[in-house]
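Give me structure tokens for this 83-residue protein.
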Amino acid sequence: MTATIRSEIEAQFIQVAQEQGNRLAPLTDDLALLDSGLDSLCFAIIVARLEGLLGVDPFTLSDDVLFPVTFGDFVRLYENATK
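Here you go.
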């Protein structure tokens, strides 16, 4: 399931970037989300779509969720939330 989660997240980053006309940086684990080329609207769209696709929104599961800093952090947040 982990590979599926990662590939779904990658697909959503790519799709939303294209839809919003943003240039997406290469998606590596150490890519800072602030340097990804996406803005807050893009992230809101991605989180909403991933909730529909994966059935989980890790940002609402707990009050003490730390916002991910890198793409790898973002992926791990979802991987951990679906366990």
